[in-house]
Write a structure and sequence with these properties.
The chain is about 20% helix and about 30% strand. It is built from three helices and seven strands, in the order H-H-H-E-E-E-E-E-E-E.
């Protein structure tokens, strides 16, 4: 809309539709790219859902709970859609490593997709263990997309309870 048309619309009390210029769109794309590389593109909101189709979502490190029970350290990790054979657990140097790969199960041509948001690929998560564990007695189970790892503590790492008599 040229300047004369805008002035005429203002005089008549009409509304002028706003359309982003290509310069504004280019500027917005540049800001999103800069923040995306700094924060990770999945943290930014998407104003245009179609952009996600071309970006593809990578699998991220699984979220975990790491807590202490009396004689064990327990780790629970969310790994939805994973096969138990594709998960690997390693313990060394007071660290627990959970890694694996989520594979795409079907072969569908990209041009047939309307939306593809499921994540595939490799991941790795390294956790510092809060105490010494007996690595030869570790037990892991996988059920309903949750991996549970139970790491028995060494005798030296088990806390001894001392009752204090309060008078």
């Amino acid at each position: 809309m040229d300047t004369k048309a805008k002035e005429a619309a203002r005089e008549k009390g009409g509304l002028i539709p706003w359309r982003p210029s290509t310069e504004t769109t280019r500027w917005q794309d540049e800001i999103e790219r800069m923040f995306g590389s700094f924060l990770g593109s999945r943290l930014l909101p998407s104003w245009d859902g179609r952009r996600w189709l071309s970006m593809g979502l990578d699998i991220s490190a699984p979220v975990v709970d790491l807590f202490d029970e009396k004689d064990e350290v327990v780790v629970k990790a969310e790994l939805p859609g994973m096969a138990k054979d594709d998960i690997e657990i390693d313990i060394s140097d007071h660290q627990l490593t959970v890694k694996g790969e989520k594979k795409k199960e079907e072969k569908i041509k990209e041009e047939n997709y309307y939306c593809s948001e499921r994540s595939y690929g490799s991941f790795m998560r390294v956790l510092d263990l809060p105490s010494e564990v007996q690595s030869d007695k570790v037990h892991a189970s996988y059920k309903n997309g949750v991996l549970e790892i139970r790491l028995p503590k060494t005798e030296a790492a088990k806390k001894k309870e001392i009752k204090v008599k309060v008078e």
